[in-house]
Design goal:
It is built from 9 helices and 10 strands. It has helices at about 5-30, 80-85, 90-95, 125-140, 155-165, 195-200, 205-215, 240-255, 300-310; strands at about 40, 55, 70, 100-105, 150-155, 175, 225-230, 260-265, 270-275, 285-290. Helix 1 packs across helix 2 and helix 7 (about 205-215) packs across helix 8.
Length: about 300
């Protein structure tokens, strides 16, 4: 592992393992009594150029033609760890959707969000592997291909942005907790870490950011996925500057103004919506004052599920 990446992963672990412990307690307490469903590893799920592992959670309460949520872990994390350490399991129990937990399966447990292969539709690497997981669940669980969503934290948030750019034909919406814009982490020297991006030194116009997304899938003219963004103002691992750049990127991709149609502040959290003032706005952004690299916090997963429209 490159020295810079190793140092960053170590710092991530110290922060995120504490957060994961708190989330695990919340998730465990929310699990319904008498539930028999469990996390299952799926092998031979299809084309897997990223050599990822796949875990699937089908709740006892799964609905007919269920929706799919892909939940993507952070660096140093695992699929099973994200299952036990977030609230998506209990939300799946409550609302009857299936959750896929990809596992990075490499040293450092970070997802590829930087290679040229990762930043192209069907280009190979981790995004292509995750797309195969979705296809597997659609075929084997009769899942609804029109209701596929993705959410992730840190490295998983960056992968969320990448998946939304690479596969707008698969994902209806995504929620990125502590991420960076699509292609911000791009490298061409084989490194998986981009210090300029992580430290908030990369700035582009909205049009330039939008073009990076559109160039990932040349010729695609269909609908683009809606995006929910979360970031703490005191994040020193993935600088808060990236939050504003993400907003610029996705408002451009979705063809809505960078000026929010609504702004609501409660405590240390400010929510802005772009394009529409509704639970399913084209872009929704949460800025958390004084919060570092420690999302997702209890209750935030439910906000993502509401944004996806899976809480009905």
């Amino acid at each position: 592992m490159p020295k810079r990446l190793r140092a960053t992963v170590t710092a991530l672990a110290a922060t995120l393992l504490l957060t994961a412990g708190a989330m695990a307690a919340t998730s465990a307490s929310a699990a319904p009594s008498g539930a028999t469903a469990s996390l299952q590893e799926v092998t031979n799920f299809g084309n897997n150029p990223g050599n990822l592992r796949m875990y699937e959670y089908v709740p006892d309460s799964v609905k007919a033609n269920p929706a799919i949520l892909v939940a993507v872990h952070y660096c140093t994390g695992t699929g099973p760890g994200f299952f036990s350490g977030t609230e998506f399991r209990s939300l799946a129990d409550q609302h009857g959707f299936i959750v896929i937990y990809p596992d990075a399966n490499v040293s450092g447990q970070c997802f590829d969000v930087s290679s040229p292969q990762a930043l192209k539709h069907d280009g190979g690497s981790d995004p292509t592997s995750i797309a195969s997981m979705v296809t597997y669940v659609e075929q084997h669980n009769q899942a609804d291909a029109s209701r596929v969503f993705v959410a992730g934290a840190s490295s998983g948030a960056m992968e969320t942005d990448v998946l939304l750019g690479d596969y707008p034909d698969i994902f209806k919406a995504g929620a990125a907790f502590m991420g960076v814009p699509f292609a911000c982490f791009a490298t061409t020297d084989g490194s998986s870490w981009n210090s300029q991006c992580s430290s908030g030194q990369i700035t582009h116009t909205a049009q330039e950011w939008g073009d990076m997304v559109r160039n990932a899938y040349p010729g695609y003219s269909g609908a683009r996925p809606r995006v929910q963004l979360w970031h703490g103002t005191s994040d020193t691992t993935l600088n808060y500057h990236n939050f504003g750049e993400e907003i610029k990127q996705w408002t451009n991709v979705l063809g809505v103004s960078q000026t929010p149609v609504s702004t609501q502040t409660s405590g240390n959290t400010t929510r802005t919506r772009y394009g529409a003032d509704s639970d399913q706005a084209p872009v929704e952004a949460y800025s958390l004052s004084g919060v570092g690299h420690s999302l997702m916090l209890p209750g935030e997963a439910a906000q993502a599920i509401t944004f996806f429209g899976l809480n009905g």
